[in-house]
Amino acid sequence: MKKNANHQESLTFRPLYKRLAEKVSAQILAENLKDGDFFCTLNDLCEKYIASITTVRKTVALLTAQDIISCKAGEGITIRDIESLRRMVSLRCRVLLLHHHYRKKLNDFFELRLSALVQGFSTNDIATQVIYREALNDESTLAFYWQSSTGIVCGNSMVGDVLAACQEYGMRQVLVINPPANVRLPPNFHPVFYDFAGLIEQSQRFWRTGNCRKIVMLRNEYNIIPPSYVDVIDLEEYPSVEVGRVYGERLWNESSDTGFWVTDDFVGLGLYDYFRGRGVDLNESKRLLVNSSPSRVLTDELGIAAIGFCPMRIGEEAAAHFSRILKEPDDEKKVHAPLIISAEASMSAFRHNELPDAST
User: Fold this and answer.
1) Which of 88, 113, 146 is the last residue in one of the domains?
2) CA atoms lying within 13 Å on the CB side of residue 300
3) Which span out of 33-42, 145-154, 285-294 was modeled with the highest average pLDDT?
4) Contact 210, 236 (CB under 8 A)
5) What is the C-alpha to C-alpha distance for residues 41 and 49, in angstroms, rounded to an integer?
6) CATH value at residue 152
7) Which residues form the HTH gntR-type domain (predicted)?
8) 286: left (phi over 0), alpha (psi -120 to 50) or beta
């Protein structure tokens, strides 16, 4: 491990003028400058970064040689090719997207989130590499990709593996989506939390607009902790439409004022299908709520009320958040507040004119 640490240190060493070039590049991008725009003078850079004129001149010479800026005596520094700078930053920032599913066992929610992450990083001029579970089991493959990365994105089930990889292959900036509550994250790990408290509050507001006197929850997501008046059935089976139908048969004899709060969309669809096949439409009587992505086409077309977290929004916001962190110069990394993803409701869940006052 000591040899690996020394090797890692030698790989990350950069002369002062190159580190200053990284900061100047970040400043140019942050100011949204265009080709031909005036940037600043050499003295401005000396004062801003408390650097010697020799270091600043080397920095400017490097960026000039890369055709990013132009510097003329008496005119200062102007932008020459902002797109070249964006491409260079993209090549420097390479993010590994660690996928905890195998290629043959993909989940559409995570695939939509992954697609939005890739698009979001691309919009911010950052290259990505998706690593599926089978590749993660190959240590040599993981080591190869790790050395070429500046950032890692992972989900809650992979935090332990990523912590171990950081110790083995070198520390990286890490974005953790929905991290487990029982793991203490180091400063270079940046959490993205789902607002489960907000999801529960919106779900309660949904039930308050109906006439259900009893609520039964079918739960496979243990971060969703309902009020004490809700009867909870924890699902031991892998969630599926067929599991929903099975529970539909078990719950068929519940009274007509019983509502069903389901934390998985496939189980909710199965439950809906079972009741619908016997002449009972759970949607019409507002007896069914699914905590799932509000953008699901299937639940929306059937009119099933859904309150949950949109995978496209998660990916888009997480990519933008992590891009800002990665583009900060290494010696200016700050402690960032966690990103909080709010729950959203489908059109079927609420009609705005039916919403009660949030304070009631």
Assistant:
1) 88
2) 10
3) 33-42
4) no
5) 13
6) 3.40.50.2300
7) 14-82
8) left
Copy the structure tokens of residue 306: 């859904």
**What does pTM read for this prediction?**
0.72
Does residue 67 sit in the same domain as residue 147?
no
Q: Which tokens go with 335? A: 């402690």
pLDDT digits (tens, 9 = 90+) for 306-347: 999 999 999 999 999 999 898 877 666 667 889 999 999 887
Tell me the C-alpha to C-alpha distance, in Å, between residue 183 and each of 92, 157, 191.
Answer: 30, 11, 11
Cα–Cα nearest to 223, from 191, 199, 255: 199
Listing from the earlier edge strand, what are the strands of the sheet with 305-308?
231-234, 214-219, 258-262, 288-290, 305-308, 344-345
The residues that bridge with 177 in the sheet, in sequence order, are 155, 192
Residue 201: count other Cβ atoms within 10 Å of its Cβ.
Answer: 14
97 located within any domain:
yes
Interior angle at CA 183, CA 177 and CA 185, nearest 5: 70
Residue type, 163: L
Cβ–Cβ under 8 Å, residues 99 and 115? no
H-helix or E-strand spanning residue 198: helix 196-208
Amino acid at 43: N
Cβ 21 vs Cβ 63: under 8 Å: yes
Residue 266 sits in the same domain as residue 233: yes
DSSP assignment string, 265-298 = HHHHHHHHHHHHTTT--TTTTT-EEE-S-TT-HH
